[in-house]
Amino acid sequence: MMREVSTASAVDWQAETVLDSTIGFQRPPSAQATEPQRIFLTGATGFLGAYLLDELLRTSKADIYCLVREDERARAAQRLRTHLERLGLWDGSREGRIIPIAGDLAMPLLGLSRSRFDALAEQLDVIYHNGGHVNFFLPYAALKAANVLGTQEILRLAAYGQTKPVHYTSSMAVFFGRTHIDAGRVSELDTPVLDPGLKSGYVRSKWVAEQLVLTARERGLPAAIYRTIRITGHSRTGVTSNWTDLLNRLLKGCILLGSYPSLTIDVPMLPVDYVSRAMICLSRQARSLGRAFHLFHPRPIPWRELVCMVRASGYPLVERGYDQWLLELKRAAAADHPERESLAQLWLLLMSPNSLLVKKPQYDAPNAREGLEGTGIVCPPIDEALVAAYVSFLRTAGYLPPPST
Ligand SMILES: NC(=O)c1ccc[n+]([C@@H]2O[C@H](COP(=O)([O-])OP(=O)(O)OC[C@H]3O[C@@H](n4cnc5c(N)ncnc54)[C@H](OP(=O)(O)O)[C@@H]3O)[C@@H](O)[C@H]2O)c1
Prior knowledge:
alpha/beta, seven-stranded parallel sheet, 14 helices, binds NADP nicotinamide-adenine-dinucleotide phosphate
């Protein structure tokens, strides 16, 4: 579903969504698709990916083949280990089940030799494609290789040998175009529409990648799509590795300036442990293949309430009109401020197409509701305890300055 889009770069979006015609899914899916022995996972050195890896290790007996952006296996293994250790997820007893694969989403055949690619394609039972270049500054052209062509290579891997189901991590932001905002509500049955309202190159790359997955599905691939809203730290420990997230940057900017902008927005947040548990639980259900799932918080927090909770953690913040606050931010970023780099990045993020201030449609999620019913997997409330855990982790990690009171 595509509306005509005019952009300065005049990308032919129709052409972008064409899946290589040699990718087809004639062979039946792996018999092990729901009780897999060998799982392929991308993005395990990232935030959500580490928790997906942990959940897969915890809830299955499978070996997890992790694609890591390195040129050598030992370095890939070390990267994974260091990352899991930082997040408190490392468990040496499971090390033998983590199989690092040095490669690159942005390269043909994922940067693997033809024989390695073919051998993997024969071995794997299921694929979780979660990796991608998450960057709100870069244009579509710079993100295409990893996010779009990388997804095409994943679909090629799924097609070769026995057909392997694909679980693809997408974003609710693919619905932030005008069409869906005007419609008011989006459901898991809706196909995201690209229109001029969808400005971010990153979100466009996620949109194109989804179209490729949908085309593969039409060609016979069993695939599920998980669209998630902003993922935040662990609900108990507050742990995150997502330092460049706009919300973290915004809270840090407010604390550094001692003020916050007056905004009448609801802030979407979804703890990473909830997202990973929900995704893996849904992915284990055979009926999930062919479906999309929306993962969002049923009660996002109003910005002012969030600020009150941050204040309660010891940061006295005063309110400013949005324009005045932006001006203060710009001045501080240009001045000799010790954190000017961080403030300048926040300024640039707020000036670039971002999803914070965008009006959003309402979401519906009957598929996710049905799939998670009775599983005990429920979204934790966004309350004082959660925000205090987030602030405490960010402070202990040295990301936030110590509170003044
Ligand atoms: N975080 C959110 O709020 C959010 C919301 C909606 C959807 N999502 C989606 O969730 C997924 C995970 O996001 P995240 O927040 O966990 O992102 P992240 O922390 O930036 O992790 C991205 C992962 O993808 C890997 N990657 C990037 N380019 C690669 C390449 N060329 N080859 C191989 N691996 C590559 C990264 O590897 P390196 O470590 O080498 O960089 C990293 O492991 C993404 O698909 C994202 O679009 C995230």
